[in-house]
Amino acid sequence: APADPQLKYCQQVIREIFKRSHLNYSHPFLAPVDPVALNIPDYTRIVKHPMDFGTIKKKLDAGEYHTAQEFEADTRLVFDNCYIFNPPDNPVHQMGKQLEQVFEQKWAG
Ligand SMILES: Cc1ccc(Nc2c(-c3ccc(O)cc3)nc3c(C)cccn23)cc1
């Protein structure tokens, strides 16, 4: 089936997410969470479906998303995982909120 035309819009969103200007709050979300490096052994028990924007970018470039909705579902998984694992008082929770604002603004257009 022809690719969803909205998918090229997803490329724009990913380009925005990876901009250097967002690095202060985007860096925890640009590559898979490494429970060993971060010393959070319970991460794999708490977060059933890990996701990150590096993986999303790879899937987008590999044509693994057939609709923009599939892309959006993976992006929401990144933020939901962050809020499940990092309590509101944890700086990473707030960084997720900051990056989510960037996403919502770009996604809502
Ligand atoms: C003891 C402790 C507590 C919290 C964290 N969270 C955290 C996460 C994280 C991101 C997404 C996610 O779904 C889960 C965790 N990424 C980091 C980074 C890059 C540095 C420091 C903390 N970080 C790490 C260790």
Task: Describe the structure in your own words.
The protein has 109 residues and is mainly α. It has six helices and no strands. Helix 1 packs antiparallel against helix 4 (53-61) and helix 1 packs antiparallel against helix 6 (91-108). Bound molecules: ligand 8HZ. Ligand 8HZ binds next to helix 5.
How do the helices and strands line up, and which of them pair or pack?
Elements: H1 7-17, H2 23-26, H3 43-46, H4 53-61, H5 68-85, H6 91-108
Compose a concise summary of this entry.
The protein is mainly α and 109 residues long.
Annotation keywords:
single chain, mainly alpha, binds the ligand Cc1ccc(Nc2c(-c3ccc(O)cc3)nc3c(C)cccn23)cc1, 109 residues
Number of helices: 6
Unreliable stretches = none
What summary fits the major beta sheet?
Answer: none
By DSSP, the count of extended strands is: 0
Binned, the helix content reads 55-70%
Taking Cα atoms only, what radius of gyration do you get, to the nearest Å?
14 Å
Oligomer: single chain
Question: H/E series, N to C?
Answer: HHHHHH
Distance between the termini: 26 Å
Sheet-strand content, in percent, reads under 5%
What structural category arises from helix and sheet content? Answer: mainly alpha
Would you tell me the overall average pLDDT? 95
Shape type: globular
Give a list of the ligands. Answer: the ligand Cc1ccc(Nc2c(-c3ccc(O)cc3)nc3c(C)cccn23)cc1
